[in-house]
Amino acid sequence: MFLIAAACALSASLGGPGRATGQSAATALGDGRRAPAGVFSGAEGALSVPAVVLADPGVRVDGRLDEPAWAEAPLLTGFTQFDPSEGIPASQPTEVRVFVDDEAIYFGIRALDAEVGAVRATMAERDNVTRNDDYVRVILDTFHDSRRAYVFSVNPYGVQQDGIWLEGGRGNRRFGPPIDDNPDFIWESGARIESWGYAVEIRVPFKSLRFPRLPVQSWGLQITRRIQRSGYEQSWAPSFASQPNKLAEAGELAGLRNLDPGLFLEVNPALTARRIGELDDAGRFGRGGVNPDFGLNVTYGLTSNLTLDGTFNPDFSQVEADAGQIAINERFALFFPEKRPFFLEGTEIFGLPTQLVFTRTIANPIAGAKLTGKVGGLSLGYLGAIDERDGSDDVLVNLVRVRGDVGATSTLGAVYTDRTEAADVFNRVLGADARLVFRRRWTLELQTARSWDDDGGGLSAGQLLTARIARASRGLAFNAELEDIAPDFRAESGFIRRIGDTRAQGRLSYNWYGRPGAFVERVGPAFEFETFWDHETFWDGGRWKEGEARLQASLSLRNNFTLFLTASRGEFRSPAAAYEGLVSGPAENPRPFRPDPALFEGLYGLRVFFFASGLERVRGRVTLEASETPIFDRGLGVPVAPADQRSVDINLTLLPTTRLRADLSLRHESLYRKLDGALHSKATIPRLRAQFQFNRALFVRGIFEYRSQESGDLFDPGDGSAVALCGDDGCSVRTGVRSNEISVEGLISYEPSPGTVVFVGYTRRLEDGDAFRFRDVRTQADGLFAKVSYRFRR
Predict the structure, then answer these.
(1) In angstroms, how far is CA 485 from the centroid of its own chain?
(2) SS3 at position 247
C-alpha cells in the first residue's frame, strides 16, 4: 500500500554536410526522384521526424550509401557532445538518414572524421564492439514510454552489438548506460571506411522488434556516436547528466502507420555431441564414448507485443568457463553472471534493485517456457522450467513479473518466484517495487518482499526492504541506500550475498570540468560510506558491526585516460555469540576464542585505479591496493586476526592487428599476519584469452588460465596458538587450503547470425603439484564438444 500511495503521489544530401534547419517539405527533382523529406537538427530542437515510407527502396546493406533511396529520406544533423562536455557542437560531424518500408526500418549513417587514419576499428566477434572501437548506436524506444529501448551498435567494419536499454537497470558494466548486451536480434549491418570517415547501413526487420498494436504510432529515437581515441561521445537529441532518464531525452520517429510484422515464428534446433574424460575412483584417467544430444528452442510472436518462447533440453555447451576470482579470504558467495542464451533473451524485465531472480539457480533444465511483452502500460514476464537434480526430485521453477507505467517515466511492479521440489519442500517469494522519477533530477527506488521457505523441517518466513534515492547532476551528485534483510529471508531463485544484515550506503560527489579540448577534462572528489548492522540490532537501535568510509579523487585527462585514488578507513565488530564453538590455547585445555575488538578498528587502505583506452593498439586498466584487513574464518564469517593486504589486478587488451586480439589479466592478493609478519595466504590468477577473427562470422579462440590459491591455518593473534572449531564430534583445527588448477580451452566457431552456428571446442582441466612449477601436472578432466544449430524464421 505504501508503494502504491507513493506512486500515485509522484505520478541536405548524404554527399555533404547537412544543413541545420527544420525544413520538412519534400519536393520533386528533375530526374523523378524526391528531395529529402526534411533536415532535422538536434541542436536546434527539431526532434520530431516524420516517418517516410519507400515501397521498394532497393537498398543493399553494404555500407556504400549509394542507392537513390537514401536521398529521399529525412536527414538528421546537428549532433552535440554530451561527454565530457555537454551541449557543444560535436567534435566530428555525423549525419543520419532514416526511412521504412513494409518489412523493416533503415538507417544510413555518415560518421565524418578529420583524422580518418585515427578511426579505431577491429574485425571483432559479435557483441565486442563498444569497449575498443569507434561506433555509432541506434536506440529505438518502440513503445515510446521512456522505459525500455532496443540498442543497435555498429563499428566501422560493420560488426554488430545489440541489446536492451532498461531504465533503472544496472547494465553489464559498472560504468555506462543501463544496457543489457546479452539479447541477440537478427538484423543487417554494413560499413566501410572512406576518405572522409566511415559509413554505416543498418536494416532492422520489424519481426525483430516488439511494438504496440496501433494503426498510427511514434517511436522514441536517439542516435549516439563514440570516438574511441578521445572518449568523446555525441548524440542527435541533446543529452545532459542532470536527466536521470536518458530515454526521455530522445527525439521521435512520428507517424508510423499500419506496422505489421506478419507471422513471427522461429525454430532453432541444435545437435550437440561431446566426449568427456575424467578420473575414476582408482585415480585412473579415462574417456567415455561420444554422447550426442538434441535440443530445440521455439519462439512464437503471439502479437506484435507479446512473445512466447519454449525450450526442450536447452544446450549450453557454447558457454565459456567463468574467469577465476580470488576467494581465499572471502566470506560470502561470489557472483558469476548468466551466459546461457535462453535465460538471457527477453528476461530483462526480471531486473530488480535486490536480485530476487538469478537464473543460474536453474542448473540443469529439462524444459522451459517464457512469455514476455507489453500490453498497454503493463509489462509482463513469465519464466517456467523443470530443473533436473541428481539423486533427488526435479524442481519446478516459476517466475512471474509485472511492471506498470506510472506517469511519464515512473514504474510500479510486482514479482513472484516459486521453487517447488515436493509438497513440503519449497521456496516462495512475493515482492513489490517502485521506481519514481520526480523533479527531473531525483529517482526513488523502493522494494519489499516476503519469503516462505520449507526444507521439510518446518515453515519459516522473512522480510526484505530496500530504499534508494539518487540525484543526477553533471556537478553535484548524490545517492543513498538502505537495505534490510531478515535472517529468515530466503530467495532460492535469486542471488543475495548477505542474509540477516541491514546495510546503509551513501555517496556524495562533485565534478569540475575543463574547457573543451583541455588536457584536464574532469576532476572531482567523492565521499562514500557503507555500514552493516545485524538485522535485530539495527531495529533495536544498537551499534553497527562493520563499516567503511572512503574518500576518493578522480582525474580524467584528454585522450581517454582516467585515474582514481581512494583512501579508506574501516572497522569490524562481531558479537561474542558469533564466535560460538571457536577455541584457542593449549590443546589439552582450550579456551573460548574471543579476539580483542580493538584489533579490527581503524583499518586503513589505499587504492589506485588507472584506466587507458586512447592508445591504438593497447587498452588497459590497473588496480593497486594496500590495506589493513581482518583474516576471516570463512565458515563463520567472523574476523580472527588483523593482516596487511597487498593486491594487484591488471587487465590488458592487445590489438596487434585488426583481426587478432589478446586479453591478458593478472590477479594477485597476499595477506600478511600482523602478529608476526608471516604470509597467511596468497592467490595468483594469470589468464590469457587470444582470438583471431577471420571475418565477422568465423573465429578461432584459445584460453589459458592458472589458478593458484593457498592459505594457512588460523592463529590466535594474542598468543599465536591454533584456532579450532569444536562441536558434538570433537574439535578440528581451522586449517588452510591449497590448489593449483590449470584450465585450457580451444574453440573454432562459425556464426553468421544469432542462433545459427557450427563450432568445435576442447577443454582440459589439470592440477599442478607446486604453484607454477609445472613439474607434476596431472589431468583431472577434459572434454571435446561440437554443436550444429540453425535458426529458422518465418
Answers:
(1) 24
(2) helix
pTM: 0.88
Name the residue among 257, 271, 305 with its Cα closest to residue 143: 305
Q: Which three cell numbers stand for residue 763?
A: 577443454
- Domains belonging to the chain, first-starting first, are 37-257 (2.60.40.1190), 336-496 (no CATH)
pLDDT at 25 (0 to 100):
35
How far apart are the C-alpha atoms of 435 and 467, rounded to whole Å?
10
Which residue is associated with the grid cell 537529441?
237
- pLDDT, tens only, 343-377: 877 778 888 889 899 888 888 899 999 999 999 89
Q: What is the pLDDT of residue 22?
A: 40
Sign of the CA dihedral 359, 360, 361, 362?
A: positive
CA atoms of 586 and 570, how far apart (whole Å): 32
pLDDT score recorded for residue 15? 35
733, three cell numbers: 583445527
With cell 542448473, the residue in question is 363
Assess contact for 590 and 731: CB atoms under 8 A. Answer: yes
- Supply 522's cell numbers: 574532469
- Give pairs for 280-289: CB < 8 Å, separation 24+: 285/779, 287/782
End-to-end CA distance of the chain: 45
Residue type, 683: A
**Residue ranges in the chain modelled with pLDDT below 50:** 1-35, 318
In whole angstroms, what is the distance from residue 109 CA to residue 538 CA? 56
> Measuring CA to CA, how many Å separate 235 from each of 138, 222, 226, 249?
10, 7, 9, 10
The set of cell numbers assigned to 517 is 579540448
Looking at residue 174, its pLDDT comes to 58
C-alpha cell at 501: 544484515
**According to the model, what pLDDT value does residue 425 have?**
92
